[in-house]
Backbone:
């Protein structure tokens, strides 16, 4: 069927299916079409057809475990969310304006802080994120995916969309795609 990539809805504001290209960290590029955008969250999804992808790239991408399916690189399951506590260390991982990868340590301040700009409750933290890191990951110290970076401020405030909201958005969009 294809590869689905989650990112922020605001990243897709100027996405055009006819010219949209995804560049893989492992090398290689592929055309991606818009799978859908959430009405509730700042989340959108792209879909890449596996037809025509280089076999080596496809194998490398397949080896990246799917956080929505609960393999090794997994998001914090609902039954473990109670373990999340304000004050714990988190790591913000993304790419900046020069396409360099960044990983910065920060602190989780609130698990459900309402941020009017996004109109939703988000993981609120302190730490450095820069322009271009939107769509990157927020992880705990054990490597669990907590959420997706949505933004930050010059005052080192961060906002991330919780993993459960990303999953909910995907499940709703996938259900709408089924015949």
Residues:
């Amino acid at each position: 069927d294809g590869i689905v990539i989650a990112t922020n809805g605001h990243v897709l504001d100027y996405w055009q299916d006819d010219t949209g290209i995804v560049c893989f960290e492992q090398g290689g590029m592929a055309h991606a079409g818009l799978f859908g955008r959430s009405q509730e969250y700042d989340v959108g999804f792209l879909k890449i057809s596996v037809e025509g992808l280089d076999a080596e790239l496809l194998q490398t991408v397949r080896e990246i475990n799917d956080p929505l399916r609960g393999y090794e690189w997994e998001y914090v399951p609902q039954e473990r969310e109670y373990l999340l506590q304000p004050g714990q260390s988190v790591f913000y991982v993304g790419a900046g304006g020069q396409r360099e990868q960044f990983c910065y340590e920060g602190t989780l301040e609130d698990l459900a802080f309402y941020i009017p700009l996004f109109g939703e409750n988000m993981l609120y933290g302190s730490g450095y994120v820069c322009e271009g890191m939107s769509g990157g990951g927020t992880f705990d110290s054990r490597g669990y995916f907590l959420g997706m970076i949505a933004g930050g401020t010059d005052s080192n405030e961060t906002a991330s969309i919780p993993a459960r909201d990303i999953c909910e958005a995907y499940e709703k969009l996938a259900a709408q795609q089924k015949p």
Observations:
- Residues 67-74 have pLDDT under 50 and may be disordered.
- The CA atoms of residues 79 and 173 lie 24 Å apart.
- The chain is about 15% helix and 40% strand.
